[in-house]
Amino acid sequence: MTTVAVKPATMAQALTRALRDAMAADPAVHVMGEDVGTLGGVFRVTDGLAKEFGEDRCTDTPLAEAGILGTAVGMAMYGLRPVVEMQFDAFAYPAFEQLISHVSRMRNRTRGKMPLPITIRVPYGGGIGGVEHHSDSSEAYYMATPGLHVVTPATVADAYGLLRAAIASDDPVVFLEPKRLYWSKDSWNPEEPAPVEPIGRAVVRRSGRSATLLTYGPSVPVCMEAAEAARAEGWDLEVVDLRSLVPFDDETVCASVRRTGRAVVVHESGSFGGPGGEIAARVTERCFHYLEAPVLRVAGFDVPYPPPMLERHHLPGVDRILDAVGRLQWEAES
Amino acid sequence: MTVMEQRGAYRPTPPPAWQPRTDPAPLLPDAEPYRVLGTEAAAKADPELLRTLYAQLVRGRRYNAQATALTKQGRLAVYPSTTGQEACEIAAALVLEERDWLFPSYRDTLAVVARGVDPVEALTLLRGDWHTGYDPYEHRVAPLCTPLATQLPHAVGLAHAARLKGDDVVALAMVGDGGTSEGDFHEALNFAAVWQAPVVFLVQNNGFAISVPLAKQTAAPSLAHKAVGYGMPGRLVDGNDAAAVHEVLSDAVRHARAGGGPTLVEAITYRVDAHTNADDATRYRGDAEVETWREHDPIQLLERELTARGLLDEAGKQAARDAAEAMAADLRAHMNQDPVLDPMDLFAHVYAEPTSHLREQRDQLRAELEAAAETAPEGGTHR
Ligand SMILES: Cc1ncc(C[n+]2csc(CCOP(=O)(O)OP(=O)(O)O)c2C)c(N)n1
To answer: The Transketolase-like pyrimidine-binding domain covers which part of the protein (chain A) (predicted)?
Structure first.
């Protein structure tokens, strides 16, 4: 028997590999954005692509997000499959006009004649000590826009699989990359990439019986840590990694919550008007008779993303999650 | 009548002889960047101004070096240096009257300091303890702006408002070469020209937007040429010639104050350091290019001029260096103190009155901090 040494790879490397494989498999795939060429992107996710595929396939664009996404629309109209990089979460906002007015509704307004297979890669979320505009969690804006898929990996393998699936999708996909997990590693073999995950499936990362933590992206490792810590309290927590916010995997989520009877949604973005409200409502609508307690949310505060020195107070951490789990032993207030 | 018949019937009236609204010729920038130092124009320059510029450049260079050093010590989260670009930074601050406004980009900490903002406060954003460390109204400096070019329409709006109120206030807005590609840049220029707003746009063309060279940013003959299409003058200046930048910006400010409307100034300079301390510039440029620009250093250019004219001796240079060193020592001392932050500040200024859910969240955090303080009196960690 031969053992294959499995190299630990980072999430950023898995994303690079996914882009490379997609470009090699389909000449219609074009990567574009600010600094994606010579520099390989500020997070080096597009490293080497310009060299390998030429600057027409991996293009340093002028510095203009509306222009990047707007021209991608035209390229997609003409049969290409653009993968655009928005350098940071909060720098994608100039492109919202294109995203909301055109990208998200082109299929619908043309009765299916003009689908736009565009992948929009957005590094998002906090925890890396970035100054203002480098830590936003903007998923709620994307989720609120019909016509967009919204996905976010939490593991190295998913980063590869989901990005391949996003690029293969005939619909626009907002691909949110949790930037604080870029350097996370696990034993994923870049030479034998995992099969492509279909978009829209959640996955149970850890099974348990006491309660379900519903989470995604950067909060998945935090929830896994919380689940470990909860054992000391006698709680056996299940962790569901949503992976895809749109479409939403009601099946996996509800199966889990019906088993455990209790749920907490965990994410970095603010709770008011945030993704957790939608998720809690869906779970309540579908699992009401199974629930032993209200679905709780542990989220970032409803404040503009704070400066680095205060972000640890803002981001949902293990203690806050455990507090919420404690409150799930819910009894009606008298 | 069917639509097609209607279309067939449509006859546009022939246009009257077309006239451009403005003659583009006087708006066009000169082919060569304007220079003062080392030319005949230098003889006309005010010696006192040149000396002031010199002292400020030396101080600015020292500030850049000190701030960069602070990133290495972990005292600053990030610093985008303006080493090599000091002439633009200093001139931008010096040409403004007290009542005028400066709208800096994220790179322009030095201009903010030269405008009078406390050096430590100017670094607050980059240090990571708050988003803007200074009171924008105290020195009339808008917050350092991280998204590119978004401050430019603000500058136009402020200048317009001042004029509506009858104040002769000018706004000077700074942007990089890359930022000129953003939609906000174009919209700001257009509004400014249509409104004849008293604004000066200063583009510091330092060659790169992170890794992307100017040639990939624009196909225009120069960035200053962009002005003409909006109906304002474009001026090209050697951005390493402090006297020239000062003169061109002063002209533009005077023109704006007198009701002449906006000007776009492109200063040609170079980013000697990497984009920020986190950037690896060797990936996109060679040392030879950087060396050429080092030889065209703004401080040396001015020093040569001053020395040749007998306006600066060794003692004068030493005095400038000593003043800069004192500033750096003071900055170091202040930056080496840990800032005292109150986590409750998270909720302090989101709205004029905190909303009910913010009050709830504030109480939650307070309870958490109290609980943490009880279990770990040293101010224990919060997981
Ligand atoms: C809207 C927006 N997009 C992207 C960025 C990320 N970013 C920060 S600085 C920079 C390059 C800016 O280049 P330039 O305008 O030439 O100014 P310089 O850094 O050279 O002073 C980029 C792309 C940003 N800050 N804002």
So the answer is: 9-184
Closest by Cβ to B125, choosing from A129, A132, A302: A132
pLDDT along chain A (334 residues), means of 10: 71 97 98 98 98 98 98 97 98 98 97 97 97 97 98 96 97 98 91 84 97 98 98 96 98 98 98 97 98 97 96 97 92 52
DSSP state of A100: I
Residue A98 contacts residue A68 (beta carbons within 8 Å): no
Nearest residue to A122 via CA among A269, A235, A316: A269
* A64/chain B closest Cα distance in angstroms: 5
Q: Please, what is the average pLDDT of chain B?
A: 94
- Cβ(B238) to ligand 1 under 6 A? no
Instruction: List, in order of start, the domains of chain A with CATH numbers.
Output: 8-188 (3.40.50.970), 203-327 (3.40.50.920)
B341 touches chain A (CB under 8 A): yes
Place of tokens 């909860």: A230
Stated length of chain A: 334
Domain boundaries, chain B: 25-336, 343-374
Q: Would you call A35 and B182 a contact, using CB atoms and an 8 Å cutoff?
A: no
What CATH class does B25-336 carry? alpha beta
Model's pTM, two decimal places? 0.94
- Span B267-306, pLDDT tens digits: 999 999 999 999 999 999 999 999 999 999 999 999 999 9
User: In this complex, is the C-beta atom of A63 within 8 Å of any C-beta atom belonging to chain B?
Assistant: yes
